[in-house]
Amino acid sequence: MTPTAPPAFLSVLRRHGFWPALLSSAVAVGMLALRLDWSERASFAFLPWNLFLAWVPYVLSLVARLLMARGRGRGWLLAPLALGWLALFPNAPYLLTDFIHLRQRPVVPLWFDAALLALFAATGWLMGLLSLEVWKEWLEQRWGRARAWAFVAATSLLCGYGIYLGRVERWNSWDVLAEPGRLLSTMAAHLREPGAFPHLTRLTVLFAGLVLLSYALFETLMARLRCRRAT
């Protein structure tokens, strides 16, 4: 008797790492809850919000992937999801920058806080790579591998710039809608005189390189894993 294929949405969740991401998020939040109870202080209480913001582009990519799986991957459906994902994608690797808050604090050992921040950062970074994979695979099927990788490179560069905007200049994701004029003015100033902003080029290039390199490693590992499952 032929086994029944799982529903499309379950297949999408399994293929694109939903359950590991959910488990990692739950463990991270659990560690934070333990820390808050342990220290009786609100240190790192901002981490769940940052993790939520990392979940948003990941969920958008899963919705897009489900539409693709059901044969509804048309431009007018996917374009809003793609734009929303691109605008919010930097929120995923942004969690790595929360290490700037690492310092010795009362009661809780430094090693625990380092592990806590590392787990939140790794979870966000993982969801970023998983969401990038959705769009890269879709584009590769339509445009070919070279153009799909050009998309990954361009996205990595924009992601590095988005992290600069968030960490250094303190822009928020919703400012794209709340203050588009002022945001565009700031971005124009960056293009005109990048040297006038001390960390702009270095931080953008650093995170762009990290995202690109980590995705290349991620894709290689995933390809080998799928080959093993197929044999």
Provide keyphrases for this structure.
single chain; 231 residues; mainly alpha; 10 helices; disordered N terminus
Question: Mind sketching the topology for me?
Answer:
Blueprint lengths: L7 H8 L2 H22 L7 H23 L5 H14 L2 H4 L15 H34 L1 H23 L7 H4 L1 H13 L7 H31 L1
Helix pairs in contact: 1-3, 2-6, 3-4, 3-6, 6-7, 7-10
Written account of the structure:
There is one protein chain. This protein has 231 residues and is mainly alpha-helical. Helices cover 76% and strands 0% of the residues. The chain contains ten helices and no strands. The chain has helices at 8-15, 18-39, 47-69, 75-88, 91-94, 110-143, 145-167, 175-178, 180-192, 200-230. Helix 1 (8-15) crosses helix 3 (47-69), helix 2 runs antiparallel to helix 6 (110-143) and helix 3 runs parallel beside helix 6. It is globular, with a radius of gyration of 19 Å. Mean pLDDT is 92; it is low at 1-5.
What can be said about the biggest beta sheet? none
Uncertain regions spanning at least 5 consecutive residues: 1-5
Got a strand count? 0
- Count of helix runs: 10
Rg for CA atoms: 19 Å
- Average per-residue pLDDT, rounded, comes to 92
Please trace the helix and strand order, writing H or E for each element.
Answer: HHHHHHHHHH
The helix/strand class is mainly alpha
Shape: globular
Beta-strand content: under 5%
